[in-house]
From TrEMBL:
The gene is pdxH. It comes from Maliponia aquimaris. This is Pyridoxine/pyridoxamine 5'-phosphate oxidase. Pfam families: PNP_phzG_C, PNPOx_N. The lineage of its organism: Bacteria, Pseudomonadati, Pseudomonadota, Alphaproteobacteria, Rhodobacterales. Pathway: Cofactor metabolism; pyridoxal 5'-phosphate salvage; pyridoxal 5'-phosphate from pyridoxamine 5'-phosphate: step 1/1; Cofactor metabolism; pyridoxal 5'-phosphate salvage; pyridoxal 5'-phosphate from pyridoxine 5'-phosphate: step 1/1. It comes from the Bacteria.
Length: 201
């Protein structure tokens, strides 16, 4: 499109997303890779929570979590998810909707190994999204798994990644007088080429 230039230039939405994220890393005070991840339960009721995006691949977005968490269970049931990444410092956001698959192989192993020891042990200790009697009970579980796994815990079998393969990506930039710039890449299935639209604010 002739007027898609500047921040929106290029035909690869993943390259644009990486570029915007790189800009945010120099501007946001905390967690520039934070995303609000939305899933839907079996009754169609939405859930949303903040997670950290860990990779923008050539054709997908990757994050990690406990596979027994509510988000993971809802993803397993629907196979779909959406997220928004918003940077107040840049006055920009990226919205993504798509299909989800597990990342449960070497990439997940490598990311788990890159985490601090306490975070790796914490992944073992937390029964994510389940009721917890007290903070003391959680810390006791951390002590138990530390005694069991020591300083080199393996990646838990219930912990790994998810890869979101988008059917839709929207880039939004703040405009004067609420006349924002919005461009949407979309396709009906993953094998198709992207269609690009400018959207009204």
């Amino acid at each position: 499109m002739s007027d898609r230039s500047g921040h929106f230039a290029g035909d690869d939405p993943f390259a644009i997303a990486r570029s915007w994220l790189a800009e945010a890393e120099g501007a946001e005070p905390n967690d520039p890779n934070a995303i609000a991840l939305a899933t839907v339960d079996a009754d169609g009721l939405p859930n949303v929570r903040m997670v950290l995006l860990k990779e923008v691949e050539a054709d997908a977005f990757v994050f990690y979590t406990n596979y027994e968490s509510r988000k993971a269970q809802e993803i397993a049931q629907s196979g779909k998810a959406a997220f928004v990444m918003h940077w107040k410092s840049l006055r920009r956001q990226v919205r993504v909707r798509g299909l989800v698959e597990k990342e449960d192989g070497p990439l997940a192993d490598a990311y788990y190994e890159s985490r601090s020891l306490k975070s790796r042990l914490g992944a073992w200790a937390s029964h994510q999204s389940q009721p917890l009697s007290s903070r003391a009970a959680l810390m006791a579980e951390v002590a138990r798994v530390t005694a069991r796994h020591g300083t080199n815990p393996p990646r838990p079998p219930f912990w790994g990644g998810f890869r979101i393969r988008p059917l839709e990506i929207e880039f939004w930039a703040d405009g004067a007088f609420r006349l924002h710039d919005r461009f949407r890449w979309y396709r009906s299935d993953l094998a198709q080429d992207w269609i690009i639209d400018r959207l009204n604010p």
